[in-house]
From TrEMBL:
GST N-terminal domain ranges (all copies): 8-84
Gene3D superfamilies the record matches: 1.20.1050.10, Glutaredoxin (3.40.30.10)
Alphabetized PANTHER family for the sequence: MALEYLACETOACETATE ISOMERASE (PTHR42673:SF4)
Signal peptide region: none
InterPro entries named among the record's database cross-references: Glutathione-S-Trfase_C_sf, Glutathione_S-Trfase_N, GST_UstS-like_C, Thioredoxin-like_sf
Annotated source species: Tianweitania sediminis
Protein name, as recorded: Glutathione S-transferase family protein
A biological process term (GO) from this entry: glutathione metabolic process
Lineage: Bacteria, Pseudomonadati, Pseudomonadota, Alphaproteobacteria, Hyphomicrobiales
Length: 230
């Protein structure tokens, strides 16, 4: 297979969990492109494609190496213009950039902190050591202290989703009648915590929860094939 996606995994190589890798996996499936998912742990990233990037996802396509999820999506759109569009034109690219920033500012901070210990427990021992050291430096506190109070904080987090919730009252996807890369940006964040944490970040009856279930069914259920954490 000529396309490889280096995919972040923990101790179970069949359960990729990176939100950014999931964006790319969904983009590849959207384009109808077959690819090989290469399970890659935190401590193995530095060896990917001779150290091409300190972070993943990294995509290898017939010798072309691309990293960063948004850059990969743009590459796929340009490299495979005859396949189903990820953006629907320049306006879709601009919209996706806004959604990317909104996701990083609104979704990721709470999800990352609330699921932090779940992510740690998802990792192999050699990665747990790296993860603890790097995340404790980032949060400036013990790993175990970071998720404290998530049960109370999730109420405000769900309330912050109102712009997305309201929009989904008019259309089934962020991209309109069918998904675009902007959907995969937000989906990646929720798939991240779905795979690693049993905590209920969303109410299943919430329009956002219903949209998430709709996304899990896309492309032959590629994302649903990885079961939710129990």
């Amino acid at each position: 297979m000529s396309i490889k996606l280096y995919d972040l995994v923990g101790k179970d190589p069949t359960r990729p969990f990176s939100p950014h890798c999931w964006k790319v996996a969904m983009a590849l499936a959207h384009k109808g492109l077959e690819f090989e998912s290469v399970p890659t742990s935190f401590t193995r990233i530095k060896h990917v494609e001779n150290g091409a990037s300190p972070l993943i996802p990294v995509l290898s396509d017939r010798g072309k190496i691309v990293w960063d999820s948004f850059a990969i999506a743009l590459y796929l759109e340009d490299r495979y213009p005859d396949r189903r569009t990820l953006f629907g034109g320049p306006a879709g690219v601009a919209t996706s950039r806004f959604i990317e920033r909104w996701s990083l500012v609104t979704l990721h901070p709470f999800l990352a902190s609330a699921a932090l210990m779940d992510i740690h427990d998802h990792l192999a021992p050699e990665d747990q050591e790296y993860f603890r050291k790097s995340r404790e430096a980032r949060f400036n506190k013990k790993l175990e202290e970071v998720p404290v109070g998530r049960e109370a904080k999730v109420v405000a987090f769900r309330a912050s989703l109102e712009p997305l919730r309201g929009m989904l009252g008019f259309q089934p996807f962020i991209g309109g009648e069918s998904p675009l890369f902007c959907d995969y940006i937000v989906f990646g964040a929720f798939q991240w915590v779905r795979v690693v944490s049993p905590f209920r970040f969303l109410d299943e009856a919430d329009p956002v929860g219903i949209w998430l279930q709709r996304c899990l069914d896309l492309h032959g259920g590629i994302a649903r094939q990885v079961p939710a954490a129990a």
